[in-house]
């Protein structure tokens, strides 16, 4: 719910979509479930058939990778 009011510029939306495309499939899906579908980590784990610990690790890994990609991307 805290993210609903957060608006990205069109350029940042494009950069984020490109960065998401560079993630491993499972990591990308976990981030989409947690942040775009607003599911809890437990709900995400159940939906994807993985453990909550794996979801937590994938969120942490995915955010770190996205941070690096977004930091290093120059358009």
Walk me through this protein's architecture:
It is a single chain. Helix 2 packs across helix 4 and helix 3 (41-48) crosses helix 4. By secondary structure, the protein is an all-alpha fold. The model has no long low-confidence stretch (mean pLDDT 85). It has helices spanning 10-21, 25-36, 41-48, 52-72. The N and C termini lie far apart (30 Å).
Rounded radius of gyration (Å): 13 Å
Structural class: mainly alpha
Helix content: over 70%
Low-confidence stretches: none
Tell me, briefly, the overall form: globular
The number of E-state strands comes to 0
Number of helices: 4
Strand content: under 5%
What is the overall pLDDT average? Answer: 85
Strand/helix succession: HHHH
The major beta sheet can be summarized as: none
Terminal residue distance: 30 Å
Present the secondary structure layout.
Elements: H1 10-21, H2 25-36, H3 41-48, H4 52-72
Briefly summarize what is shown:
With 75 residues, the protein is mainly α. The protein is built from four helices and no strands. The protein is globular.
Question: What key attributes describe this structure?
Answer:
single chain; 75 residues; mainly alpha; 0% strand
């Amino acid at each position: 719910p805290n993210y609903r009011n957060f608006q990205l510029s069109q350029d940042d939306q494009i950069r984020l979509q490109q960065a998401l495309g560079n993630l491993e499939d499972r990591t990308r899906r976990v981030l989409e479930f947690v942040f775009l579908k607003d599911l809890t980590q437990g709900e995400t784990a159940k939906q994807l058939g993985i453990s909550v610990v794996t979801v937590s690790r994938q969120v942490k890994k995915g955010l770190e990778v996205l941070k690096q990609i977004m930091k290093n991307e120059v358009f």
